[in-house]
Each structure stands twice: as structure tokens, then as C-alpha cells.
Design goal:
The chain has 406 residues and is of the alpha/beta class. The protein folds into 2 domains: 195 residues, Enolpyruvate transferase domain (UDP-n-acetylglucosamine1-carboxyvinyl-transferase, Chain), CATH 3.65.10; 202 residues, UDP-n-acetylglucosamine1-carboxyvinyl-transferase, Chain (Alpha-beta prism), CATH 3.65.10.10. 31% of the residues lie in helices and 24% in strands. It has 12 helices and 24 strands. Helix 9 runs parallel beside helix 11. The protein starts with a strand and ends with a strand. The relative contact order is 0.15.
Length: 406
């Protein structure tokens, strides 16, 4: 799907969509728990569908009625399971330790850039503790890990920690030593919140997690609104309702970033982004927000420096490179650094044509930048937004934007 955007002012209000970060975790916990769970998720996406499909093939029953997902947990482990994680890094990294804890004979598929995204050192730790995992896709996994002591670097992916915390909670015990520096810490906090809601007993001391003897129990769980995707309409000046101000989601920091750029915040959450200035942004805990921050910085007065974003290079695309390429194609003054980018703001951008690089956040960031362009913007393969926010362009038009399919 290619989209043509004619620049138009954005205003109005929309409800925040469900956090896929919470949805993934709640669905997986429900599939491992004792007793049924009801998970309420007000919107769907390709990544959530990938996790649901995998859990079904692993033996869980998931019935969907409107926004309610009724999950009957895995009772009988299949002799052999074949799962497809699509392009969802969360799905494969969360489920690989779970598959190993179940002792499941499983073939794991992935598409897009997923087979290139790192699974080390998680994979090696699982193998050390009893799992067998092949080196190439589709992955072949078998064997069972024990509830022992694991060690992981904290600067590769918080998703590794999430997967292990979930697997060891299912096994009823274990220990994870997390070597500093620890990045994307808020995502680990989300995991702890969800696991504890399902009954896990986890203590933490000096970056070491102690999973105590316990069992996960089915429950009712409502997935809160997603700050990561709310960042896009917020950065265009729209109001987003339903967001949790006390959320453990790291991307709620978008409000602090906008304030540091001179935005005034009103209402539920509505930012006046009409007169922004540059600032310095530490991306260590908010890597998903970088493309949209760069998009608003492209027309903010002065210089914006985004740093500590090395891990952006191993996302759905190399987001340092693709964010810079996308914004340059629309007329921005932006250049890469090793761990981020430097943006010299202009009053307006020219517009033009850009690929999405098959990355949902690049496609949405391009639409945000289009609001401040003097000419039309064409986004190629804009359907990449289905990964996390399928209704993005519908909401965009509802807020006054002018986007149409070519």
C-alpha cells in the first residue's frame, strides 16, 4: 500500500490504542497459567496476531469475542509444534525461553528482517541449560531447560530478560544475573508488572532477579493504552485519551521530551507543537520513540542531538539509517552518528517520496513529518503500519490529515 499525503493541519482527539507490549506479555502468561484468563485488548495488530497464532499452535486455546480474548492455558504439550512469529521480535524472544521451559519440539519461522535480528546471548544460555536450538531459520528447538541460574548482558535486548523471567516463573524458580549497563529498563518493569499480576513472586537486588517458587494463575487483565503509538498523534498536536499517567511504559517520556522542546501540554494529553526548539535526547530507554522525535525535530528551531541509540540499528530496520534517509528525502537537514543523529531544524520541509523500509515506525514518522511539508508526501509500502497500528491512517484522516491510498 502506497499513501499520498497532502499537508494539512492536525487537530482533535482520539483514544489510545492497546499496548502491544502489555498484550504480548499478558497473552503468554495466560497460556502458561493455571485456569482460564480473560484479556481485554481494544485493538489488534499483526504482532499481536503473531503471538496469538503461535500460542494456539503451542496448545493454548484462545477465543476472541470483540475485544475480549479468553485464554485456556496449554494443558497438553503437542508432540511437535510449528509456529510463525512473522516479523515480531517480541514474539520470538519471549517465546523461545518458554518453548525451552515446556520442553517442546518446535519449528520456529520468521519473516522480514526477523531472521537477521540477534538471539545471542539468550540462545547460548538456553543451550547451556539444556535446550537444543539450531543456528539457522527456521529454527529447530527441543530439549528442556532447568530452573537454574542464568546470566545475560543488559545492553542487548530487554526482550531476552522478559522471555527468561516468564519461562522461570512457569518453572517455579530460578535466578537471572543481568550485567550492566541495563538499557530499555522500562520494558523489564512492564514484564514484572504483568507477571506479578498473574501471581509470580520475583524479587530484585542489584540487577539480579530471584524467581521464587510460585505458580502463574489465570486472571482478568485489561491491556492499557500504548504510549509508543500515542507518540505519533501527540507529536502532530492531537489529543490522545485513555493514557495511563502512572504507566511503567518508557515511552510516556515523549511528554517530557516535548516539554524540553518547548511544547505546552493540556487536556488529557495534548501538546502544542507549534513553536518547538531543539534539545538533547537520550534514547537509551526510549528507542521506539526516536523516529517520531526526529520527525518533529526536523522543523524545530535549532539543533537536536539524539544519542545512546545504538540498538536502533537492530530493529525492524536500521532505524538510525532509515530515519535519516526518510527525513532527508523530505528535505530535512539530518545526519547519522554512531549512536544516533543530529538534526538542524528548518521552518518547513519540502515534501517528496520515501519508502517505509518495511518499518511501521518509519512509515508513521513520515506521516508526522508530512504535516510540516510544503509539498505532497508519498510513503511507499505504508502498510507496514499494520505491524502495530493498523488504523493509523484512518485516525490520521479523522484528525484532519489528508492521506489517501494510491
Amino acid at each position: 500500500m502506497d499513501i499520498l499525503i497532502t499537508p494539512a493541519p492536525i487537530s482533535g482527539s482520539i483514544e489510545g490504542i492497546a499496548s502491544k507490549s502489555f498484550a504480548h506479555r499478558a497473552l503468554i502468561c495466560a497460556a502458561l497459567a493455571k485456569g482460564k484468563s480473560q484479556i481485554r485488548i481494544n485493538t489488534n495488530s499483526a504482532d499481536i496476531e503473531a503471538t496469538v497464532g503461535c500460542l494456539r499452535n503451542m496448545g493454548a486455546a484462545i477465543d476472541i469475542s470483540g475485544s475480549t480474548y479468553t485464554v485456556t492455558p496449554i494443558e497438553k504439550i503437542p508432540d511437535r509444534a510449528v509456529i510463525d512469529c512473522g516479523e515480531s521480535g517480541s514474539t520470538i524472544r519471549f517465546l523461545l525461553p518458554v518453548i525451552s521451559a515446556l520442553g517442546m519440539n518446535c519449528e520456529i519461522h520468521g519473516s522480514g528482517r526477523l531472521p537477521e535480528r540477534p538471539l545471542s546471548p539468550l540462545k547460548e544460555e538456553l543451550i547451556r541449560m539444556g535446550a537444543s536450538i539450531s543456528d539457522t531459520f527456521p529454527l529447530k528447538a527441543s530439549g528442556r531447560i532447568s530452573a537454574g541460574e542464568f546470566t545475560l548482558r543488559g545492553d542487548v535486548s530487554s526482550q531476552f530478560v522478559t522471555g527468561l523471567l516468564t519461562a522461570l516463573s512457569y518453572l517455579g524458580g530460578g535466578k537471572i544475573n543481568l550485567l550492566p549497563p541495563v538499557q530499555s529498563r522500562p520494558y523489564i518493569n512492564i514484564t514484572l508488572q504483568v507477571l506479578r499480576t498473574f501471581g509470580a513472586d520475583i524479587k530484585e537486588e542489584n540487577n539480579t532477579f530471584y524467581i521464587n517458587s510460585c505458580s502463574l494463575n489465570g486472571c482478568d487483565f485489561t491491556v492499557e493504552a500504548d504510549w509508543s503509538n500515542a507518540a505519533f498523534p501527540l507529536c502532530m498536536g492531537a489529543e490522545v485519551t485513555g493514557l495511563n499517567p502512572d504507566s511503567t511504559q518508557g515511552d510516556k517520556a515523549i511528554i517530557d521530551v516535548l516539554k524540553s522542546m518547548g511544547a505546552k501540554i493540556a487536556g488529557s494529553y495534548k501538546a502544542d507543537v507549534s513553536a518547538l526548539h531543539g534539545c538533547r535526547v537520550n534514547a537509551a530507554d526510549i528507542p521506539d520513540a526516536v523516529p517520531v522525535i526526529a520527525a518533529v525535530a526536523a522543523t524545530a528551531e535549532g539543533e537536536t542531538v539524539i544519542y545512546n541509540g545504538e540498538r536502533l540499528r537492530i530493529k525492524e530496520s536500521d532505524r538510525i539509517q532509515t530515519t535519516c534517509e526518510m527525513l532527508r528525502s523530505l528535505g530535512a537537514d539530518i545526519r547519522e552518528t554512531d549512536d544516533g543523529m543530529i538534526i538542524n531544524g528548518k521552518k518547513t520541509l519540502t515534501g517528496g517520496e520515501t519508502p517505509s523500509f518495511n518499518d511501521h515506525r518509519i512509515a508513521m514518522a513520515a506521516a508526522v513529518a508530512a504535516v510540516r511539508c510544503s509539498g505532497n508526501v508519498i510513503i511507499r509500502n505504508a502498510g507496514a503500519v499494520n505491524k502495530s497500528y493498523p488504523s493509523f491512517f484512518e485516525d490520521y484522516n479523522r484528525l484532519g490529515g489528508k492521506a489517501r491510498v494510491l
